[in-house]
Design goal:
alpha+beta, Rossmann fold, 2 domains, 6-stranded mixed beta sheet, 5-stranded antiparallel beta sheet, 10 helices, 29% strand, globular
Length: 455
């Protein structure tokens, strides 16, 4: 679970900081930076799995366009920092169970675009990467005050960098902290060293086992982050039996995910398993729906599904409305008993009747899990972005993050620059408001009405 993100030099972000809650909604007009925030999180997710070049190619725009641009030129560096709350335990990709002694971590990453002798870009490299535990005395996140969190007395970072003269990185140092065999002790000794001179991928992306449990858990949080941008046309299609069992961003494997959920949760008393819960929740949002039917017969090579209505009609996925498909895909994630990590959902209002939005927001809110102790359900966080007044009206004050673009004067060049600003803390009872930190619901409503010419 993310509790804080800091961004500098990426797209429209300049010395940007944002504290987020288990359920937060970024509210603002088009071109205010809402999608750019999701792009930053998506970039971190890709960087935890891939080299920098591949990660950048998976984002919107050319690599150079991802660096902040102003009237005076393009930045050559971008920096990110996140503070996270990790689950107290987990299982790695090879079935090894691990425990987490320091559930609060801060991860920092810096990338630099370097040029050749002619001034032409020749590559983008890691220039800074650290990961360290957050001590209890230094933990300022509002969420943490009410959570049961394990802290470690450890002071050594899990990832650090060795530098040569002039601050040029020469090596990553990754410290082992996993269990040493059957003794129950923790591995100690010299850190693993990787060369960092013009590194084309992050040290975190090399972590694949519970030999490094804290770093593995951090990487797993990035990797398991879902970015849901449902494409109803793709969601209608049947799925073959070898499809992914986790929902794709466009929901193109929805049939396979539904079939897998039915198979994994089916019991003698509940032959449809969690599909029954999905049916009930979908019916509460769309009264005409009675149930969801999943077809996963072993004699059929593809999975498919249909909707049964209250007047006993059956509609195949080919003719289900776009709004119904969007809600079904979302509930497939929210009702999954194994859900974990972070869900980033773009514009939940798309294709949904305005009268159903309060119930939809309630489902998103109730799906969040903030318990971090061993043996309890995994942490699950929901972040959405929206420009819908109806969605904003259904949100609690503390859940709103107001996004807009503001013009400021660069103190070095004295030129005007535009950057993304996001503010939390809707207030109504203060006589004096700080425009940089405080705002009212009326101000956010005005933001949604504002027309902007920013691209």
């Amino acid at each position: 679970m993310l509790t804080r993100i800091e961004i500098d030099g990426f797209k429209t972000f300049d010395q940007f900081t944002l504290d987020v809650r288990p359920f937060s909604a970024v509210v603002g007009p088009n071109a205010s930076g809402k999608s750019n925030l999701f792009d930053a999180l998506k970039f971190l997710s890709f960087l935890a799995q891939q080299d920098i070049r591949t990660a950048m190619q998976n984002l919107r725009g050319e690599p150079e366009e991802l660096f902040r641009r102003t009237e005076t030129g393009t930045a050559t560096e971008m920096r990110f920092a996140v503070e996270v709350l990790l689950d107290a335990s987990g299982v790695d990709a090879f079935g090894t169970r691990y425990g987490i002694k320091a559930q609060r971590l801060r991860y920092e990453l810096g990338l630099s675009m370097k040029s050749d002798t002619r001034g032409q870009p020749r590559g983008i490299f890691v220039t800074h990467e650290t990961c360290r535990p957050i001590a209890k005395k230094d933990d300022k996140a509002p969420l943490i005050k009410s959570a049961r969190v394990q802290y470690s007395k450890r002071t050594n970072p899990f990832i650090s960098m060795k530098e040569a003269g002039g601050g040029e990185p020469t090596a990553f140092e990754i410290r082992q902290d996993g269990p040493a065999g059957d003794t129950g002790a923790t591995k100690r000794g010299r850190p693993v060293t990787l060369p960092a001179i013009e590194a084309s991928r992050t040290a975190l992306s090399t972590i694949t086992t519970a030999e490094f449990p804290h770093l593995y858990a951090l990487r797993d949080l990035f990797v398991s982050t879902r970015f849901l941008e449902i494409n109803p046309q793709a969601a209608r299609k049947a799925s073959d039996r070898f499809e992914l069992k986790n929902l794709r961003p466009d929901a193109s494997n929805l049939a396979a995910v539904l079939a897998n959920l039915k198979s994994e949760t089916s019991t003698d008393l509940r032959p449809d398993g969690v599909i029954s819960d999905i049916s009930i929740d979908l019916a509460s949002l769309i009264p005409s729906v009675r149930s969801v039917k999943v077809y996963n017969d072993s004699n059929v090579k593809e999975y498919s599904f249909s909707i049964n209505t209250s007047n006993n009609l059956i509609f195949s996925s080919r003719v289900i409305s776009d709004g119904t498909l969007r809600l079904l895909a979302l509930l497939t994630i929210l009702d999954d008993p194994a859900r974990k990590g972070i869900l980033c959902f773009e514009e939940p209002e798309n294709g949904v009747h305005e009268g159903r939005i309060p119930a939809l927001v309630a489902f998103l809110r109730s799906a969040v899990s903030t318990s971090a102790t061993i043996g309890e359900e995994p942490l699950f966080q929901v972040l959405v972005n929206t420009h819908s007044p109806a969605v904003m009206a259904a949100l609690d004050n503390a859940e709103i993050v107001a996004a807009d673009s503001v013009s400021v004067v660069d103190p070095k060049t004295r030129s005007k620059v535009v950057k993304t600003r996001m503010r939390t803390g809707i207030l109504s009872d203060k006589l004096s408001l700080d425009p940089e930190t405080d705002l009212t619901r009326r101000e956010v409503e005005n933001l949604l009405r504002r027309q902007t010419e920013e691209a």
